[in-house]
Amino acid sequence: GAGVSQSPSNKVTEKGKDVELRCDPISGHTALYWYRQRLGQGLEFLIYFQGNSAPDKSGLPSDRFSAERTGESVSTLTIQRTQQEDSAVYLCASSLRTGGATGELFFGEGSRLTVL
Amino acid sequence: SQKIEQNSEALNIQEGKTATLTCNYTNYSPAYLQWYRQDPGRGPVFLLLIRENEKEKRKERLKVTFDTTLKQSLFHITASQPADSATYLCAPRSGGSYIPTFGRGTSLIVHP
User: Fold this and answer.
1) Taking CA atoms, which of A62, A111, B64, B75 is between 20 and 30 Å from B84?
2) 3-state helix/strand/coil string of chain A
């Protein structure tokens, strides 16, 4: 597709379960970002991938959160032993290595996670 | 620590008026600043970028200013329309950083 694709769009899980969220970036975009947005809040940076470089994990809130990316393609964000405070929309974005002329990020529609 | 401030209260205006949204930042020296629009249930969409050496940038009905002395950017929508109703996010960005940091956004509501 032409845009950033995320799945699932909605996920309801029970506390303590593990969840996986998937992001398929725009073809050719080497940079990939994960953000978290709690209800009524701003975007909270989680992790950044750039090509084959080591990811910047400085935003991950705890060791229950991890993410992987294979080359310059799909990324998976995994949350283990989910807690209610993990409930949020998880947004993925991609961009060109140098951000092109504007450094703009292209966002997916997000994965809404609800932990009961 | 770095801080980005946007009005947390919604801005309500009448159709046809000019909407002005404010983004203030502290402990930053951004090389450029981006503005995004976010509709409910959707991901943000890029609107405009302004660089530190630019005072003003325009795109159709949108105008952005950037005052590095005041550490402030203003985002204007002229001849506003109900379809402009959304949340607008600013993202100042240092030249050496590849990780945009976003403000919480300001909700704009344009009444017909």
Assistant:
1) A111
2) CCCCEEECCEEEECCCCCEEEEEECCCCCCEEEEEEECCCCCEEEEEEEECCCCCECCCCCCCCEEEEECCCCCEEEEECCCCHHHCEEEEEEEECCCCCCCCCCEECCCEEEEEC
Task: List the single residue in B43, B98, B100 with the smallest CB-CB distance to A110.
Answer: B43
Q: Sheet of B86-93: strands edge to edge?
A: B11-14, B106-111, B86-93, B32-38, B45-51
Q: Which residues of B touch A93 (CB under 8 A)?
A: 43
